Structures are given as C-alpha cells and as structure tokens.
Amino acid sequence: MLYFFLLTALIKSLFVFPARQNIKAGDPLVPRAAFHSGLSPYLSAHFPGRQKIDFSRGVPVAPAPGLVHVQWKLFGLIPLQEMLVNVINPPKVMVCGHSIGVLLHAEGVLVVGHTVVEDPTGKKHHPAEKAGILAGDLIIKVNNIVVQNDQRLRDEIERSGRKGKSVTLEVRRKNKTFPVKVNPVFCKETGRYRIGLFIRDSAAGMGTLTFYDPQTKLYGALGHMVTGLDNPAEVDLSAGKIVNVLVQDIYPGGKGKPGEKIGAFSGKTRFTGNIQRNTPFGIFGTLRQPPDHYFYPKPLPVALAYEITTGPAEILTVLSDERIERFAIEIEKVHPQIRPEGKGLVIKVTDRDLIRRAGGIIQGMSGSPIIQNGKFVGVVTHVFVNDPTRGYGVPAEWMLQEAGFFASGRKNKFVA
Q1: Annotated active-site positions, please?
Q2: Pick from 16, 197, 181, 196: nearest CA to 119
Q3: CA 99, 103, 106, 109: dihedral to nearest 10 degrees?
Q4: Which of 48, 129, 130, 315 has its CA 20 to 30 Å from the CA of residue 269?
Q5: Helices of type H across 123-209
Q6: For residue 401, which phi and psi values (nearest 5 degrees)?
C-alpha cells in the first residue's frame, strides 16, 4: 500500500510538465525541476519511429533543433501524458532599458464617452451623440485644423460657438474617415461652449523598451498589456506608436504609495516605432528608427525559463534624462508553470542607490530588462504596493514567444 501511494505521488509530479516546452539544443530533454528521479525505474519516453527510451540512465539529450513528440508511459505500457518539445538555438537580441512614451494613436484625440451639456435655461443637450459620434472614434481635424491635443479641439469648439457656427470634425472610425458637423452648446456649468464628449489625447503612459532585434527590426516593451483607464480591457493600439522620452524627475515610491517617473518628449527623435500587438506579455512592433545607444553594445543570449535561478541579477532602466543605468536585484522566486500566464518571477531591489533615488520599483519601469549570468532572463512588470522594493516580472522566453521568436521547426527524428 505504501508503495502504491509513493508511486502515485511520483506520477503526479509528471503532470506539472507543460504540453509544450522549449529546450535549448544540447540540454536534457526534461530540464524541469519537477521531474522526480524516483520515477526513473518506472517511466519511459516514446518517440515516433523509434524504440522507447527509459530514464534509468538519466534524461536523454536533444542534440539538434527541431520538434520532438514525447509520450510518457508507465512501465512502458500505460500512457500518462504527451508533450511536444521544441528544441531550439535561443536567439540573441539587443537588450534595451530606454524610456518610452506610448501613444494610443499617431494623430488626433480619442472619444471615450458622451456627456450631457446643460444650457443656461436648464435644457439638456447631447450635440455630439446626436450627430452620430461614437466612443472609440478618433477626431483627426476640427474645421480643417489638425487636432494635436485635446486643448486644440476645445479652443476651436469655443471659437466656433462664440461665432454661432457649427464645427466640422474629421472623424476616423476603424478604416473609414468622414466629416461630421456638430453644433456647440453653451454650458452654464463651465461657462464654455461644448459638444458633449469625453476625450483623451494620444499619451497612454510611460514605460521601458525591453529588447530590439536588428535583423527583423522587431521590438518588445512593457512586459504587460496596455489597458483602459476605467476597465481592464485591451486597448486598440493599432494606430499607436512608441517614441523615446527623457526622464525629468522621479517621484520616489513608499509603502502604499507607488512612485513614478516624470517624463517629457525629447526634442530629438532618437527612435520611434509602430505598435502591432498589445498582449499580456507586452507590446510589440517594429522600429522605424532604432536606438543609437545601448548599455550592452552587443546582443545578449535569451535564457529559457528553466535556466533562470534564484539569486543575484540586475535590471537596466533610466532614472535621469536618457541615461541607461544598471541596478542590482535579487530574483527571489521562479514560479514553475504549465503554461505562460500571470507573473513568473518575484524580484527584490537590493541596490542602495536605486532605493535612495526611487524607493525601489516605480511606474515607468515596466519593461526594464533583467540580466542574470550574462543572459537576458526576464522583464520587470509590476511593483508590490505595500513594498516598493519588491515586484513581479515575467521570463524573457514568454515575452519572445509572444513575439513569435520560437516558431516550430522541422521534426527531430532522434534523441541521444
């Protein structure tokens, strides 16, 4: 009976294996710490077109890139689980750390909702809604003047209202652009002419550029999804872009009070890029103009998740102007997971200079790359509200896989 329960416990450890696993060529086929050596006498792996391989002599190695289909069997007879191993040569990328501004759209202002306008007689109006403007529309021009920010739109509405004229808006909805005429109404509450819209200008916030691949011109940033102000839904960034910004000041964080970087758009465009995808592991796109400087001048290899260990590491980020600095951290936990989701790393800032200047992890550091043993291993994503010296990160492998770096190759017909 004891033997049965022991074997059952050992078999359960097998089921923490993912259905799909990236493995570096030359590494053991099953590097996961969850594999229990006690299973070795009972477990065998079966590969198409090849005899079974037992694990009594250790875990076999996949010598060349390709796909390996593995079926785990107990006593060579009872199927337990299947796993697809993608054997790869991990890529090398330029590790960044530059501060960026994320723009929701390259031009215009975004309509985020409607509001009522009450005139001096108490009558309520909905001018923009009546004219057919919807939440999610982009207002590109007003009276044939390019709308660079929300203030420009407000000023032109006020000017037209005082003249007793309507405003002509150029509106973009998805892939269509069309004109809309709206009659401004004098609002007794604000003392200004309004058209009854809640609008938001282009700036979505500040973050950090994580990596750049010179061959494909692909970049990754933030390490998490950009969501709406009032809800966690994904924001459409297909018309957005990223640009370099400089850090003007730091508001240090404290317990229960997250700090932040205060940035401004640089007078000189050092790099800029589009936004093609907004995902749980960051935003991705291509840079039209790459950065002109890096902390590490040569590409670094990307560590796979199983290569990350607890212990000392470093992050790259900007605290002043556009100067990338290196700061010491500790990787406290590496969470083994069946599939990439949530927060895979727990980190702690140990660098006294970073704690003195910023209090620890602050807003605007999302996307700061984590380096360990000369490899790009992860990305800073969130801060603990009650302890700004600690926070979460995600493995670099998850971010690059989301970007399409680990596409499956040919099938591997052998292991050794």
Answers
A1: 224, 351, 366
A2: 196
A3: -150
A4: 315
A5: 127-131, 150-162
A6: -65, -40
Rounded to the nearest 5°, which phi and psi values hold at 389?
Answer: -80, -10
Taken in order 394, 397, 399, 401, is the CA torsion positive or negative? negative
Three-state SS at 236: coil
Tell me the CB-side half-sphere exposure of residue 325, using CA atoms within 13 A: 16
366/73 Cα distance (integer angstroms): 43
The CATH fold assigned to 2-88 is Immunoglobulin-like (2.60.40)
Residues of the chain with CATH 2.30.42.10: 109-200
CATH class of 109-200: mainly beta
Question: Tens digit of pLDDT per residue, the chain (416 long)?
Answer: 545 555 565 555 555 566 778 888 888 776 554 455 455 555 555 555 555 555 556 666 766 787 777 776 666 667 767 777 888 888 999 999 999 998 876 678 888 888 999 999 999 999 999 999 998 788 989 999 988 778 889 999 999 999 999 999 999 887 899 999 999 999 999 999 999 998 877 666 899 999 999 999 999 999 988 876 555 555 667 778 899 999 999 999 888 888 999 988 766 778 899 999 989 999 999 999 899 899 999 999 999 998 999 999 999 999 999 999 999 999 999 987 656 666 789 999 999 999 999 999 999 999 999 999 999 999 999 999 899 999 999 999 999 999 988 765 444 433 33
206-218 as b/e: b if 16+ CB within 10 A: bbbbbbbbeeeeb
Structure tokens that stand for 408 in this block = 């499956």
AA letter at 123: K
Q: What are the beta bridge partners of residue 97?
A: none
Q: What is the CATH number of domain 90-106+203-410?
A: 2.40.10.120
Length of the chain counted residue by residue = 416
pTM of whole model > 0.85? Answer: no
How many CB atoms lie under 10 A from the CB of residue 144?
Answer: 9
Quote the CA–CA distance of 181 and 133 in Å, as a whole number. Answer: 10
Dist. CA 295–CA 298, nearest whole Å: 9
